[in-house]
Amino acid sequence: MKKHARRAAAATTAVLTLAVLATACGGSDDSADSKTVTLVTHDSFAVSKSVLKDFEKRSGYKVEVLRGGDAGAAVNQAVLNKGNPQGDVFFGVDNTLLSRPLDKGVFAPYEAEGLAKVPGRLQADPEKHRVTPVDTGDVCVNYDRRWFADKKLDPPRTLQDLAKPRYKDLLVTEDAANSSPGLAFLLASVAEFGEDGWQDYWKKLRANGAEVAGSWEQAYNDRFSGSREGKGKGDKPLVVSYASSPPAEVMGEKNPPEQAPTGVANGTCFRQTEYAGLLRGAKNTEGGQALLDFLLSKRFQEDLPLKMFVNPVREDARLPELFTKYGETVDDPATVAPRKIAEHREQWIKTWTSLAVK
């Protein structure tokens, strides 16, 4: 959703004054302090300073953040550290990867306050409450409007379009083995072309010059020509990002345009839901529970859209005007059943790697 979604927010909203912990397995001496609670997350986690400080004042806990790269890499690390976690709460596992930490026993049960305000369809573990839904977002191909206007070329609208010769060498996506949006884009192709057809699609996409970057940050900020953070240095006018990415390109402008400089190819989208959970073996369980309550609080939920450029899960959370004006609404995103993802994810990733990377 991150950030933005789910993931331009880390660079464009550098408002955090949180301490970043060392990456040594098992945490640090501070993590044993009952007044310190440690959040393990991906690189794009962001929150307004005032919102965080209010939580710290009200709860009495100091929040420290340990970042672990892209969401996929952070989840992998959490699985490796199960039972001896680096912190107290993990935020950033989405529905494409959720079965892995659940099956491995990474999370401990806790029913967060505010869960009654979240639709049941988003609650992936309603019986045990090992994870708490925090946000949703649609992974979609974004395009650089100016580039396509200058070339007098219509931007792609569907997955099928991306394999057409007119879009040769224009797309950059993320590594599905390590990147959450990269995996979501792979799953979008599975949903569209079926378990027997997605491989042929990726052969065509690769033959059409699709590039694979290691992370969302690399793909969007370094390779995408429409990234404000990248100052237009990238040469790829198509990138796998989020339907909520365009507002990030407008935020802070003194004279905002009528239309965001980047657009969304609506026929390429896959719906993600992002979760947080109390880490089994956490040194500060009470602090972790308080932090989960905070992530589901109305104030944090309403802070989400312009910090991580994702949608809140609370039904009573209001969206800011900039987010609704410039963000894209996706009425019919692709989905794949969670159980099917769990059964086939590893093999799909292995096959995808042989097609798209090697």
Question: How would you describe this protein?
Answer:
There is one protein chain. By secondary structure, this protein is an alpha/beta fold. Helices cover 32% and strands 18% of the residues. It has 13 helices and ten strands. α2 (49-59) links the parallel β1 and β2 (62-67). α8 runs parallel beside α13. Residues 5-32 have low confidence and may be disordered.
Topology:
Layout: H1 9-12, E1 36-41, H2 49-59, E2 62-67, H3 71-80, E3 89-94, H4 99-103, E4 107-108, E5 132-144, H5 145-150, H6 159-162, E6 171-174, H7 180-193, H8 198-207, E7 211-213, H9 216-223, E8 238-242, E9 262-279, H10 285-295, H11 298-303, E10 311-312, H12 321-326, H13 338-356
Parallel strand pairs: 1-2, 1-3, 6-7, 6-8
Antiparallel strand pairs: 3-9, 4-9, 5-8, 5-9, 5-10
Helix pairs in contact: 8-13
Task: Record keyword descriptors for this entry.
globular; alpha/beta; single chain; 358 residues; 18% strand; ten-stranded mixed β-sheet
Précis, in short:
Helix content is 32%, strand content 18%. The protein is of the alpha/beta class. Strands 1, 2, 3, 4, 5, 6, 7, 8, 9 and 10 form a ten-stranded mixed beta sheet that branches.
Q: Roughly how many Å apart are the termini?
A: 29 Å
What would you report as the Rg, rounded to the nearest angstrom? 19 Å
**Helix-strand sequence:** HEHEHEHEEHHEHHEHEEHHEHH
Please describe the biggest sheet, giving its number of strands, its sense, and whether it closes into a barrel. Answer: 10 strands, mixed
